[in-house]
Write a structure and sequence with these properties.
This protein is α/β, with parallel strands linked by helices. The chain has 22 helices and 16 strands. Strands 4-7-10-1-11 form a five-stranded parallel β-sheet. A three-stranded antiparallel β-sheet has the order 14-16-15. Strands 2-3 form a two-stranded antiparallel sheet.
């Protein structure tokens, strides 16, 4: 049972000298050291930063630094800042009713000092859990010093009979309310310069002026920031005195490997949905979706300063699964198995997440997105088939073979069509498909090989998009693909 009065608190574990004088930065440091000694995970759900960002965050906490995370959009900056609460105690005693979470043993606000003088050991105590000690503010140009620091409240002064210059007349802003906790500001460069000046004055001196009245606020707070480096020139900048007072500047990055990207996307995407059908997403489909983002980040037609967020493959994979789910519902299939065709149907999840350069604007977002998908398919196809001989498949097309398939074909229909191509389905084992694998997976693997051969210019393909009448109930948007062989262009066998 936690102590509920100041007297009981003095005689509890919270009343020892080390706890009374411990700051929030000391608290985080001690709890981090315990985690390191026990070899506990430092952050949950943060993938790909184990050797880069996480060690720098650990060093900043051990150094008792305020910190800033610099990185392009979609690099888990906000998530890391919110996870800092795991380094706080599970419960922290505060004086009941205090707006700024005063330390019962060392109150800094006038109201709490008066209360202790009046009630003594009978002063009531409440507790905050670690999540209540995190305050976050998104920086926008309209944020005022009153939002961050506070303002004089005339109504509060009138009701209490206080002078306007009294501390009891102050309505505290977000920063004082984060006392004995973590105060986070996202997109720091968007904050007006005068507000940034107010922040570094608090960080350095602990005092401010509110409407001309000096108020001493020796706050005990960890201040953390996030920023996009490109914002320095696009919308604003970080004022030099504030930047000088931030102890550690930590740069984030996008996933370094496809495997890291796939793991993040699997973790964040809505894959395990409440469907009555079994959902199975082939590994090669996940890798293609992730490769789209990798290709986009290196494409000269896409603005690198804006970045390509990790939200692109997350949203794309969700759309891919949804298109496969729609097909399964319409055709009555028991399994939902996405194919490469479903990736093309997920264009709306791609086009809105890329900022195009002038050359890209000329071609259009849809054209760029389709080209990115083709590049991604080629990348994954070459990974699985670096030197496989597909001469038998290519010969089938050269001898006049022709396939026309739709993204709404059920697995049985698609598989029956693919079986016409000699040697095609024999090559699917490399993709993890066995003869006894589900029909949907075998069909998806066969289609993947066709798309791969098309991506490396061994066969040709035409696309026709449009709304068409369907012999099934309702109508759907279908992608018809014609696989053929252009004898004038494709003469070389696949290496």
């Amino acid at each position: 049972m936690l102590p509920r009065t100041l007297g009981d608190l003095r005689s509890s574990e919270f009343g020892n000298e080390s706890y009374r004088t411990r700051t929030i930065k000391d608290e985080m440091r001690q709890n981090l050291i315990r985690k390191l000694q026990r070899k506990d995970p430092i952050f949950s759900g943060i993938i790909g930063y184990e050797e880069t960002v996480v060690p720098q965050v650990i060093n900043a906490i051990l150094s008792r630094h305020n910190m800033i995370l610099l990185g392009l959009r979609g690099q888990a900056k906000s998530r890391i800042l919110r996870e800092l609460t795991t380094f706080l105690d599970e419960a922290m005693p505060v004086i009941s009713g205090c707006e700024i979470n005063d330390n019962p043993f060392n109150p800094i606000c006038r109201r709490c000092r008066d209360l202790i003088q009046e009630s003594g050991d009978r002063t009531p105590i409440d507790y905050l859990d670690r999540n209540q000690r995190y305050v976050e503010k998104l920086a926008t140009p309209d944020v005022t010093i009153a939002d961050i620091i506070g303002d004089i409240d005339p109504i509060k002064a009138a009701k209490g009979g206080h002078a306007l210059g009294s501390e009891l007349s102050v309505h505290y802003g977000l920063l004082p309310r984060a006392n004995r906790g973590i105060f986070s500001i996202n997109e720091l460069p968007d904050l007006a310069g005068k507000i940034q000046v107010g922040l570094f004055n608090i960080m350095q001196e602990g005092d401010v002026q509110i409407k001309g009245y000096p108020v001493r606020l020796p706050l005990d707070v960890v201040i953390v920031f996030s920023a996009n480096p490109e914002d320095y020139t696009a919308r604003g900048k970080i004022v030099t005195p504030l930047k000088d007072r931030i102890g550690s500047e930590i740069k984030t990055h996008y996933p370094a490997t496809i495997d890291h990207g796939v793991a993040i996307t699997e973790q964040e995407a809505w894959i395990r949905r409440n469907s009555t059908r079994n959902i199975f997403v082939p590994d090669f489909v996940k890798q293609i979706v992730e490769a789209i983002a990798f290709k986009a980040r290196s494409d000269q037609r896409i603005d690198k300063r804006s970045g390509v967020s990790q939200r692109l493959p997350i949203s794309c994979l969700e759309n891919v699964i949804s298109n496969a789910e729609r097909r399964a519902i319409v055709t009555g299939e028991d399994h939902i198995v996405p194919r490469v065709a479903d990736v093309y149907s997920a264009l709306p999840a791609i086009t809105g997440k890329i900022e195009l350069e002038y050359e890209g604007e000329l071609k259009g977002a849809d054209t760029i997105a389709r080209d990115l998908i083709r590049q991604a398919v080629q990348m994954i196809f070459r990974h699985y088939y670096p030197s496989t001989d597909f001469k038998q498949v290519i010969d089938w097309f050269e001898m006049g073979g022709h396939l026309k398939i739709s993204d709404s074909d059920p697995a049985t229909t698609l598989l029956g069509t693919l079986e016409k191509v000699q040697g095609l389905l024999d090559r699917t084992e490399v993709l993890g498909v066995q003869p006894d694998s589900p029909l949907g997976l075998r069909a998806a693997a066969g289609e993947m090989i066709l798309e791969g051969l098309y991506s490396v210019d061994k066969i040709s393909r035409s696309e026709e998009r449009g709304f068409i009448a369907s012999d099934r109930k309702g109508s759907s948007q279908e992608l018809y693909r014609d696989y053929t062989m252009d004898r004038n262009r494709y003469k070389k066998p696949l290496n």
